[in-house]
Amino acid sequence: MSTTTVDRLEGARRDARKAASSRPISRAEGWRRRGPLLPALIFTIIVTQLPFLLTIWYSLHSRNLLRPEADLFVGFSNYLDIARDSTFRQTALNSVVITLGCVLVAMILGIVLALLLDRPFFGRSVARTMLITPFLVMPVATSVLWSIALLNPTYGLFNWALGLFGIEAVDWTSTYPVIAILMALVWQWTPFMMLLVLAGLQAQPKDVLEAASVDGANSWLTFRLITLPHLRRYIELGVLLGIIYVVNTFDQIYLMTAGGPGTASANLPFYIYQRAFLGFDIGQAAAMGVVVVIATIIVASAALRLIFRSFEVKE
Amino acid sequence: MSVATPVVTPRTTDSRRETRRRFSGGFLTTVTWLLAIGFFFPVAWMAMTAFKQENQAASDPPTWFFTPTLDQFRAVLEGGSMVYVGNSVIATGVSTVLVLLLGVPAAYALSIRPVQKVSDVLFFFISTKMLPVVAVIVPIYVIAGQLKVLDNIWTLVVLYTAMNLPIAVWMMRSFFIEVPGEVLEAAAIDGAGLMRTMRSVLLPMVAPGIAATALICVIFAWNEFFFALNLTASQAATVPVLIVSTMTSEGLFLARLCAAALLASLPVILAGWIAQKQLVRGLSMGAIK
Amino acid sequence: MFRPPRGTSVRATLAAATAAVALALTGCAGAGAVGGGDGEQIVVAIVSNPQMQDAISLQDEFRAAHPGVDVQFVSLPENEARAKITASVATGGGEFDVVMISNYETPMWAENGWIENLQPYIEATDGYDAEDFVPSVREALSSDGDMYSVPFYGESSFLAYRTDLFAEAGLEMPDNPTWDEVRELAGELHDPAQDFSGICLRGLAGWGENMAPMTTVLNTFGGGWFDADWNATLASPESREAIETYIDTLQTYGQPGAATSGFGDCLTRFSQGQSAMWYDATSMVSSVEDPASSTVAGDVGYVPAPVAETESAGWLYSWSLAIPSTSEHKDAAWDFVSWMTDKDYIKLVGEEIGWERVPPGSRLSTYEIPEYAEVSQAYADATLESMNGATQEATMTHDVPYPGIQFVGIPEFQDLGTRVGQQMSAAIAGQITVDEAIEQSQRYAETVADTYQAEEGQ
């Protein structure tokens, strides 16, 4: 595809958008446009927002499932308890560390792998197939695989391999629980990042690259000046999707360390789960849920609107 | 695209540079292969362990050579595991179809002939993904209990649809927006209605994107554990729950667990392997524009 | 880039979609066929331990005896099962007709009216000999003299040790060891260079994991969670000494990965011959003595739980079956419950699966069966003795205002026990000091104590 085609497409799109936004839309036309959107929108509102309203209602009550006699309206006292709860703060910090750590490392590895895969070499499709596999393995299976088969201090493969280099056995899940979880998460998410970046690389107009190499630009320069800017949107998308999914990580923590030792590797979803299904303290768990939702929405909307140019163009 | 138009000059060959490139090419290929093997190895180890006896699976040092046995697979399969597989197939298949049925029109309404406040709607969709599921699990449990739909596979279908719909709308919108306006205008001039334009012009053009979206939905739905764990019991339990119920707190269980984990992951692994080209192409169609 | 693909790929997409739907429909039919049965259907939620798996594998026998009842099992590991069952019973979810609970839940749930009083059913069932249940267990599953759940198996805790290694090293295990003696023996045999540990103890956080053995140590040292007036006593000198002993023993002579190892990890280690001693549930014998999974079968001796100030220290735990009040099939549910806890079931397991797999600790008559006595001679006496000794009077130095030995029989304890367990686990891992763990734990316990002191005051 030549640069001119790109320009033409961009131009056409811009025109279409301008037309769409500048021309006043009649009522009927407005509904005709809204029509296809409504089923999805209404479905999403019902399924996701109604339970959330109930969560807010619960968060204002003192309710413990195990003590059915007490169900009182307590205003914001559940929220005050959260403010005083040092474990909540620690798990919030863990959430941030785990999410950012996983997304950043997976993205860097993903870029490296994508660049390596974007060259012709013998058995490339086999190598790519092997590399995407971790993303396809069920997270429940991943957790079992890492915590038991690979990281177990007695018969785990990892320590055996370290032992070959004379390094003493490390008890990963209790000495470095967050790192153990990060290993499993990075292993799982790197292929996803790699796929996205690879998609970006393959969408890159080849003639520009060829021209650059013919001009004598070395590969690092080409990468920095041409490839990286082109990849930016793909990287941003990967980071966004990664954050959205990794921040909600539950399976790995639940099955690998159960948040332990202590609460050293618990993230917010796991901590809230424990409050709800171990303490059966519904009011407290609901209040934590509400706090997390508000915090996520604030952070995410700031991030979305700042980083993502895709949101600038509309209206 | 902010790249300065390069000046095209005739290709020159520099033999020294050529040699260096070939050498570094060989080096990079080796690195690539080492990384590929490294990433794949845990899966291979899981597969190997699944063919071992329990005391070989938990041995120190690890057992590398052994007579493979199918005992563990037999043990996993004989416990009525087809119910779990059936449930997973329904939950995954139906929710993915529903996501496409709801998501394609929505993506259309957000791209080709956009409604007003597109970015707000998109933001709403994506913000529902930020809602931690643990925050709503208790209300969902209580509501499902009152509607008598606990342990009902359709509950999972509805939840998985809601879980995947935002991402699907997002992805598909970015594919739709790539469709050049002229094509649609031409169709409109030809007098094609909305449905026909959709069917005969639009969908064929974005088919790879839709396939990629569907595959992503399938992966997430098949692998979903949290709702399945909390909302199902005997009738609607899915494959991830089967794996967890294979874990016993008493007894050696690693080999059997690996067998269960391998069987459970296999459908999605195979689907991903087969459709990987589609996936890359779908994502490259303009993932974020 | 946007070459419109030819018609084939649309068809391919459609074909794929059709295939997905077809697959879904066949899956549907499959699930329906399995779920379908002509009789009354009951759903049984159980913990996926080996003895419970045996019950699932024997379900055809039940079907043969009760053709009108169709049983569906839900089997999950302990923590998951407990969370699910509690949530379901507490909210009246009604998914289950039979639930496996323990002597922790039974008295509380009976009081809340969440589970059926089984006494009328017991009395109406001929030959179901409730007097035959191990007395300490029967007592623990009753409320006001009526049984609200019936035991499937019962366990206490004892100390397993490698007789072969002790003989080799010229060491002798006392008949009723103290913790000091155990520590000394562990020191003699501990050999980390060979990846061999002197003792295995649970460190994994959880009220049913590390806090079960730890609480028995607390009790026997004269400490505990609460005194008779609901004062939290985790920081008392006796409790402190107990906690320090447990953690120090584990750190000095224990297994690697102690902070995250639970029963299963210890079992794997001990039965692979990598530990000289192991203090844990009496139910370990079914796996330790099974030559198929254990390399030390036949080389293990058993003595009662190590003590300090009390005459015995073992815990008391029973997995039992109850019927939630929300069940709409109570009679069919009782058919199943009585089948699984009857004397005949014990014989059935012995004959069909093997005598070493019999669920122990529920009925006294089990120990009189000659075949069982033969396979269990290494541990039968130790088990029964531990279970009979598992009373508050024999394992504690002072009165407490709650039921339970290794747990505190109040609803808050699952949460409290696990939070304290997390602190202990962190201390075992060396992430915090023992003092910090004790201080934090004491604070947790005080919060709970406040509620009860306020209630007492009223």
Explain how this protein is built.
The complex is a heterotrimer of chains A (315), B (289) and C (458). Chain A is an all-alpha fold and 315 residues long. In chain A, 74% of the residues lie in helices and 2% in strands. Chain A has helices at residues 3-22, 27-34, 38-59, 77-84, 86-117, 124-136, 139-150, 157-164, 172-175, 177-202, 206-214, 219-246, 251-256, 268-277, 282-307; strands at 61-63, 71-73. A two-stranded antiparallel sheet of chain A has the order 1-2. In chain A, strand 1 and strand 2 (71-73) form a beta hairpin. Chain A is flat. In chain B, helix 3 (71-78) crosses helix 12 and helix 9 (194-223) packs across helix 13. Chain B contains 13 helices and no strands. With 458 residues, chain C is α/β, with parallel strands linked by helices. Helices cover 47% and strands 13% of the residues of chain C. In chain C, strand 4 and strand 5 form a beta hairpin. The termini of chain C are far apart. Mean pLDDT of chain C is 86; it is low at 1-37. Chains in contact: A-B, A-C, B-C. At the A-B interface, helix 1, helix 2, helix 3, helix 5 and helix 6 of A face helix 1, helix 4, helix 5, helix 6 and helix 7 of B.
Features:
B: 289 residues; mainly alpha; 13 helices; 72% helix; C: 458 residues; alpha/beta; 20 helices; 47% helix; 13% strand; disordered N terminus
